[in-house]
Amino acid sequence: MNISAAKHSIISLETRATLLVALSATLYGCLGFFGTKLIELHFTISAMLFWRFFIATLWMLPFVLKKTAHVPSSNFDKRQLCIPFILGGLCYAGNSAFYFAASHYTGTGLAMVIFFTYPMFVVLLAWLIDKYPISKHMAIALISIALGLLLLKGQQVNISNKTGMFFAI
């Protein structure tokens, strides 16, 4: 979309991006709820991963096909996408598998609390090591993350399960 078209659209590009990020965060947040329900129904981790990524693939495929239709084939080497695609899939699937395994052993609340502290550590390490300044917006985001994690913790906490803690960390 060019700049003049973006100025004339009903929703600005920035607003649309913000809404998509909010939708993504909301759906990702539902992972704990649905993961807990599937664990209660005795789904295996591999089955949960299969259905999660199968549905995501069906959802994303039309968008990818629409975008790649506009890319000239002479400038586009599909083999270059193989390694990032495979590594991304393995890392993302591994991340999800570890989350589901941690949820199975420690409960969803604790697994989610541990899992979602990483943005706080990234910001704090950047501040401590690289002297990266923490802006007002970043501080608000950190406080929001901390409050959200406190609300997520829940009652069914099993800190003594070392296997679950390993997967969560």
Q: For the terminal residues, how far apart are their CA atoms?
A: 41 Å
Structural class per helix/strand content?
mainly alpha
Shape: globular
Fraction in helix:
over 70%
Question: What does this entry look like structurally?
Answer:
The structure is a single chain. This protein has 169 residues and is mostly helical. The chain has one domain. The radius of gyration is 20 Å and the shape is globular.
Write the layout of secondary structure elements.
Blueprint: H1 3-8, H2 13-40, H3 45-68, H4 82-106, H5 108-115, H6 118-129, H7 136-152, H8 162-168
Helix pairs in contact: 3-4, 4-5, 4-8, 5-8
Question: In brief, what are we looking at here?
Answer:
With 169 residues, this protein is mostly helical.
List keywords for this structure.
mainly alpha; 8 helices; 75% helix
